[in-house]
Amino acid sequence: MIQFSNITVNYSYVPGAVKDINLKLRKGDFTLLLGPTGSGKSTLLRLIYMDILPSEGIVTIDKWSSYRITPRQINLLRRNVGVVFQDFKLIENMSVYENVAMPLIIEGYRRRYIKRLVHILLDEINMLQSANQRASTLSLGEKQRVAIARAMAKNPFVIIADEPTGNLDREASQNVLSLLERIHQNGTSVIMATHDYELIKDTPYRRIYIENGQVLPPARTIATPKTRINLLTQTE
Amino acid sequence: MKLLFVIRQTLNNLWRERTPVVATILTISIALTIMIALFEVSWVLYNELHDLKSNMVIEVYLDSQISGTRARDIQEELNNYNTIDRIRYVSKETAAEIFLQEFGENINDILDENPLPISFEIRLLPAFNHSDYLSLFKKQVENIPGVDEVHYRHVLIEKLETLTEAVAVAGIFVLIILLFAMNLLVRNTIKLSVYAKRRQIAIMNILGAGNLLIRLPFILEGAIEGLIGGIFSATGLIIIHKFIESSFALVSFSSTMYKMLWVYTITLGILIGLLTSAEAVGRFVNKIFSKK
After folding, report:
1. At A218, is the pLDDT very low, low, confident or very high (cuts 50, 70, 90)?
2. Core-most of A32, B57, B115, B127, by most CB within 10 Å?
C-alpha cells in the first residue's frame, strides 16, 4: 500500500537526508519509525504526503506514484492521508470546531454533514465541550487530540504521526497513543515516528529503525532495541 | 460551505489589516478620480478639436482680375483632389452679400466698386483635417496660377492639436504613476494579509486545499478594496460634476452620463483591485509554499 523503492532525498542543506531506502508498509498496520532527531524519519513521512518528492527512486502511496504525480493529484492524496505533527499545526485563531472541520470544508461537504461529523469526532476525543474554544487556549495534550481528530475527519486510509508526543507529558502522551491505537483498531493504518521508547516499549507493533538516513537491518536493532534507543536518546 | 468559508476569510482579512486596507481604498479612490477627470478633459478637448475640424472651411481666394472661364478651370482642377468633400463657388456678388450680412454695410456703397475676389469654400474629408495635410494642401493650391491666397484657421488648429497632444501625454504619464501607486498599495495590503496568514496557508496546503480556495479570499479582498474605492471615486466625481453644472449655466450633464460615471468608475475600481491582488497573491503564496 505504501512503498519506497530506492528512495534518496537530497536537501540543498543536507545531501542524503535519506539514502537508498526500500520499504513496504502494509495496509492496516501500525508501524513505528524509530531513530534519533535528524535520522530521516520526518523526511520519510513527508514523502508519504508528498510534501517533498524524492531526488531518486519512487514512492507509491495507494494509487499515486511520485513518478508522475501532478500538483492537483497531490492535493487529492493529501485529502486521503491524515497528518499529525509534533507542533500540532492547528490554526490558532480558529475554534476547535473550525480546525476539525477544515479538511471537510476543503472537500466541499455540506454544512449539516460537517456539523454532525465534527461533533462525533470531538465526542471521540472527549472535547465536545471545548468545540467553540479557540485552539490557542488549549493545553498541549488537548491540541494534539484536536489535531488527531482533524486528521481523522476525512476517514483517511493512513494516519501519519510525526513525533506526536514530542511536546507532551507522560499522561498526555499515553492518551495520544491510546487514541491512535483506537483509530488503528478501526482499520486505519498508522505510521508513527517517535524516539520515546518508554511510551512504545510494550506495544506489539512493527518497528523500523532509521539512522543517518538509512533503515537499519532488523536483526541488529531488534536484538538490542532498548540499548539502542537509550543510546540514541542520550546522543540527542 | 466553501463559499461561506471564502467570504468569512475575506472579511476577516479586511478587518485584520484595516489600516493598510483604508489607505489602499483612499489611494484607489483618489487615483481613480484623477484618472477619470483627466480622461474627461482629454475627451472634451478631443471632441472640440474634432468638431472644429469637421466644420472647418478652407477659403481659396482667386486673383481679383481673373476671368470667369479661368475660375471654372481652377474649380475643375480642385475637383481632381480626392481629399475634398465639398466645394462651394463664391462669386463676387455672393461675397458682397456675405459682407453685408456680416458687417451690415454694402461694399459697393463704401468703395464705389466691389473689390471682393471670387473664391471657393472647401471642406476636406474628415481624415485629412489635420495640420500636416492642411499646410501641404495650402501650398499646392497656392501654386495654381490664378490663386491669390489660401486661408484657414491654422493657428487655432495647431494650438488645439498641441494642447490635445500635451494633455494626452501628461495623462498617460499621470496614469502610469497612479497605476503604479495603486498597484504598490494593493500589493502591499495583500502581502500583509498573506503573511499574517502564512501559517494557515501552509496548514491548508498540507490538508489538501486547492490553489483557488487558498487564494480566493485574498483576491476578493483586492476586489472589495477596488469596489469601495470605486464607489468613493464615483461619488466624488458626481459631486464635482454637480458643482460644475451649478457654477456654469452653459454646462449640463445628462442622467446617462451620471449612470455611466457610476458604472465605469466602479467597474474600473473592481478590475484594478482584482487584477493586482490576483497577481500579488500568486507571487506571495508561492513564496510561502517554497519556504515551507
Report:
1. low
2. A32
φ, ψ dihedrals at B206, nearest 5°:
-65, -35
Q: What are phi and psi of B144, to 5 degrees?
A: -70, 125
Q: Minimal Cα–Cα distance from A168 to chain B, Å?
A: 21
Q: Do A102 and B207 touch (CB under 8 A)?
A: yes
At A155-210, the pLDDT tens digits run 899 999 999 988 888 888 998 899 999 999 988 999 999 988 888 888 999 999 99
Are B109 and B13 in the same domain?
no
* pLDDT tier for residue A119 given thresholds of 50, 70 and 90: very high
- Closest residue of chain B to A100, computed from CA coordinates: B207
Contact B147, B62 (CB under 8 A): yes
Q: Which residues of B touch A82 (CB under 8 A)?
A: none
Is residue B26 domain-shared with residue B68, that is, in the same domain? Answer: no
CA distance B81 to B86: 11
Secondary structure of residue B5 in the 3-state scheme: helix
| Greater model confidence, B52 or A52 | A52
Same domain, B164 and B277: yes
Residue ranges making up the domain that contains B99? 57-152
Q: Domain end: B135, B152, B169, which one?
A: B152
Strands A206-211 and A189-194: unpaired
CATH for A2-235, among 3.60.15.10, 3.50.50.60, 3.40.50.300, 1.10.357.10? 3.40.50.300
Looking at chain A, list the stretches that DSSP marks H as alpha helix, in order from N- to C-terminal side: 41-48, 71-78, 96-107, 111-124, 140-152, 170-185, 197-200, 218-223, 225-235
pLDDT higher than threshold 80 for residue B292: no
Task: Give B1's contacts in chain A (Cβ within 8 Å).
Answer: 104-105, 108-111, 114
Provide the CATH number for the domain around residue B115.
3.30.70.3040
Is the domain of B167 the same as that of B275? yes
Backbone CA torsion sign across B211, B213, B216, B218: negative
Q: How confident is the model over A1-37, as pLDDT tens digits?
A: 899 999 999 988 877 788 999 999 988 899 999 988 8
- Point out the domain boundary residue: B107, B127, B152: B152
**A28: number of Cβ within 10 Å:** 12
A13: number of CA atoms within 13 Å, CB side? 1
Nearest-CA distance B43 → chain A (Å): 49
Rounded (to 5) percent helix, strand, coil in chain B: 75, 10, 15
How much is the pLDDT for A133?
A: 94
**How many domains does chain B divide into?**
2
CB pairs under 8 A between A and B: 50
On whether ipTM exceeds 0.85, the answer is: no
**What is the residue type of B250?**
L
Domain assignments of chain A as residue spans, ordered by start: 2-235
Buried-state track A89-116, b at ≥16 Cβ within 10 A, e below 16: bbbeebbbbbbbbbbbbbbebeeeebee
